[in-house]
Fold:
Amino acid sequence: MRKFILTTALFLCTLTAIAGEGMWLPFLLQQINEKDMQAMGLKISAEDIYSVKDGSLKDAVLIFGGGCTGEVVSNKGLVLTNHHCGYGTVNNLSSVKNDYLTDGFFAKSQEQEIPCPGLSVRFIRKIEDVTQSIMAGITNDMDKKSRDEKIRARAKSLREKAELESGMEISLKSFFYGNEYYMFYIERYNDVRLVAFPPNGIGKYGGDTDNWAWPRHTGDFSVFRIYADKNNKAAKYSVDNIPYNPKRHFKINIGGLQEGDFSMVYGFPGRTQQYLTSDGINETMNILDPARIKIREKRLSFMEAAMKESKTNFIKYASKQARVANYYKKWQGELLGLKLNDAVNKKKAEERKFLAWARKSPSRWKKYGDIIDKQAALYQNKERNELQYNYIRECLKAPELISLGRYGDSILQANNKYSREEDFKRFSKRITGSLDRMDLNTDRKIATALYDMYREEFGEELAISDRRVQAMYTQSALSDPLKLKKLLASQSPEAIKIALEKDPVYLASKFIDSENKKVLTDLRPDLISLNENYRTYMQGLREYSTKPLYPDANFTLRLTYGKVEGLEPQDGMSYSHYTTLGGAVRKRNTEVEEFNMPQRLVDLYEKKDFGKYATWHRGKKDVPVCMLSSLHTTGGNSGSPIMNAYGELIGVNFDRIWEGTMSDINYDINLCRNISVDVRYTLFILDKFGQAKWIVDEMDIVESRR
Ligand code: ARG
Ligand code: ASP
Structure:
């Protein structure tokens, strides 16, 4: 009890200090943040946001696909997420004839919604603290290996038991570098269909030029729908499935906002490294980011040239290019931000303070006194291996053809079977399908240049020669459907084996696997030690800190709260908290693809045909497009609901500003802002541009300002 009073007192005196920064665990909001949130303006309770009982806001938030967030916005399973989160799926649904990326797609009725094979959404139904069960009897001084094994075995058995008992998917994750463990009960829905997708001239407006930057005019949203079986249960795709009736859906507020309004974001932030030591920051800045930027720049130059060559290549590379370009630019912003803000020295100063605190007690000093130095030594020791590990991923694994090498093993395995025909047919279909989705000529240019870069860094002997790279594209059965067909038709298993074991793609992929393994074998002990030390360091930081600390992002459900607000990124310069359609129209340039806004949208603007989605801007009516707020977000938060004080949806998160791109490592409320699409723009585009008012009509809309 005493301890509780003490910690509460600590929270009280730091109340305003924790807003803005922090990705908080939803089930601890009541304990840690509720008072602070209500003082800032929250009008609902922590229990309304997260409850173990059905029907809190958490039941309306979901994992969209592999790495985004989405939210349910109607009682018929309508889902809102980002355009860039649906991009890969819609790219797969597109062809030269039906190019939904360029032309957009708006279903006119439920019947027209398009099934999306491979796409799923996941809800978190329950979260359980399993720290005690995992950690009982485990101490810091145990031998590292047996400690690790014990934890892993316990996690596995807890997961399996929960899986069996609940019938749900279970994910068990570690927080604060293994100081706490939580288990997530997940329900997955596999029948998800496309409802609306604005054309690139809206959904990707500004392209890579505007990516990671403000001012922004991107309508980065898309709409999907979850289907379930007749009993509202998750089911695989079937024409008989019906729209899913969710436990909770968001109301939409179009009543307008003012700077300073309370806001919050609920979603699945992927990865942050807020507690890195100065040497860790140094590694990202001076070793990893520069290498990754250099490699991606090369790779992108070939992708972009190919996309300009033909519509076929545009469809082949649209989503791949967007993915590669996104982090290419992010790392540049991160690097710049870390430099400008002197992140390493700032961290060093904090470390000195931490050590001074530790020095005050012998037991603390014993535990923490050498922790920063130990990390420094480990970072130094792993530098070369870490770089090589990154080069393998960014260079050697970049060509798409290399990924087909894995079929070599499958073919060899099937080759030993009496009935191999079926397997061969299946592999052949998949390989040919993959080849259809790439442009071998472009892929070859990428491989040639990137393998060259790798050789330059790590030497000829450790690499694949250019002669062997070229052979992958001219002599392999895995790069040529005809050769593949001939090979697999061969009657003699022995002949197949001999041919495959000489196949240049298969050989190269084997070589890369073994190189990767070698590097990892060297790297792993350092990574394990680093993590162990961070676990201890984290304990120290939590003892030392006067305010509650939040765990780094790990793609689990989190809530962040702050305000709708602009920023002064530099002296004499100011960012307002919103942009408008008028601003988007002024940026239009039909000669440049990224700024080629559809004429129809310009017409709507000129006719001032804004419906109920407009606001007053400098004495004129206009539609708000994007919005800034002081919410701590990262990759994975894309598609997350931005809510007002009542938990009503006011926007969909999709990006951060350039000055704050370093936030994953060094969050600073004075430089960091997240960017979202104002929900009024989303509804305006659906209703007026897409002429799909039926979608808007399905939502619960609140028209008054709160
Ligand atoms: N930067 C945002 C995020 O990290 C949006 C990226 C989508 N746009 C693009 N041009 N790739 O995902
Ligand atoms: N655009 C990111 C995402 O896709 C969000 C961010 O990094 O701010 O999740």
Notes: Residues 1-17 have pLDDT under 50 and may be disordered. The longest helix spans residues 504-544.
